[in-house]
């Protein structure tokens, strides 16, 4: 049996529909909390363990810093012991852009970059070289997004036709449309000449 500190101990959990539940959750293990709908899974994980983890984290900060943070209420539980710093990823969709990852949303990505830059084998001198959000670290092909979006010119343009003859295949540029007119009225193109010429 592992030492007592290797378990997160919850005693007397009474949040929402929990009625004095005691559990021990192993640390450094993937733990799955299962049960029928309404059995208190989310109450245990999000409303007790995650809230108490956030509350304990906030208490460790200086009073000046705590003044700027929301104060999570103490969950309805007798005791939560041996709780490490926690990151709760719930079931709501994460907000962010195409560059967002679990690392960027939880703010652990900059720390990992710093770790790799300082503790790794030095071949690049700065942490930004490990960031897909920085020009120094992003892939030049996908610009850090992970996929390449490109225009298929052959699908968009029939080079054998002129602008007046419908060279632009996208419906928004159909001959006589507003966007087609903006292009042809610009005076920059010979609208009767095939695009290939």
Question: Describe it for me?
Answer:
Helices cover 25% and strands 8% of the residues. The mean pLDDT is 84. It has three domains: 78 residues, 3-Layer(aba) Sandwich (Rossmann fold); 56 residues, no CATH class; 47 residues, no CATH class. The protein has 197 residues and is of the alpha+beta class. The protein starts with 6 loop residues before the first strand and ends in a 13-residue tail after the last helix. The chain is elongated. Strand 1 and strand 2 form a beta hairpin. A three-stranded antiparallel β-sheet has the order 2-1-3, with helices on one face. The longest helix has 20 residues.
In whole angstroms, how far apart are the ends? Answer: 80 Å
Number of extended strands = 3
- Structural domains: how many: 3
CATH architecture annotation name of the largest domain: 3-Layer(aba) Sandwich
Q: Could you please say which CATH topology of the largest domain applies here?
A: Rossmann fold
Q: Which residue ranges are poorly predicted, with pLDDT under 50 across at least 5 consecutive positions?
A: none
- Continuous helix count: 6
Biggest β-sheet strands, sense, barrel: 3 strands, antiparallel
Q: Taking all residues together, what is the mean pLDDT? A: 84
Gyration radius over CA = 29 Å
Helix content: 25-40%
What is the topological layout?
Elements lengths: L6 E7 L7 E6 L14 H20 L2 H4 L12 E3 L20 H4 L3 H11 L33 H4 L21 H7 L13
Antiparallel strand pairs: 1-2, 1-3
């Amino acid at each position: 049996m592992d030492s007592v500190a290797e378990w997160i101990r919850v005693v007397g959990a009474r949040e929402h529909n929990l009625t004095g539940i005691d559990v021990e959750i192993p640390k450094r293990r993937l733990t799955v909390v299962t049960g029928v709908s309404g059995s208190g899974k989310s109450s245990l994980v999000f409303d007790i363990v995650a809230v108490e983890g956030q509350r304990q984290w906030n208490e460790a900060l200086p009073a000046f810093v705590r003044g700027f943070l929301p104060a999570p209420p103490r969950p309805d539980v007798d005791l939560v012991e041996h709780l490490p710093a926690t990151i709760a990823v719930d079931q709501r969709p994460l907000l962010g852009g195409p560059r967002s990852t679990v690392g960027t949303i939880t703010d652990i990505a900059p720390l990992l970059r710093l770790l790799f830059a300082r503790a790794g084998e030095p071949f690049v001198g700065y942490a930004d070289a490990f960031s897909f959000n920085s020009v120094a670290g992003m892939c030049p092909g996908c610009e850090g997004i992970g996929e390449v979006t490109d225009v298929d010119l052959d699908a968009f343009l029939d080079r054998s036709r002129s602008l007046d003859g419908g060279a632009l295949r996208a419906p928004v540029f159909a001959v006589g449309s507003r966007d087609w007119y903006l292009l042809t009225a610009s005076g920059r193109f010979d609208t009767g000449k095939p695009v290939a010429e």
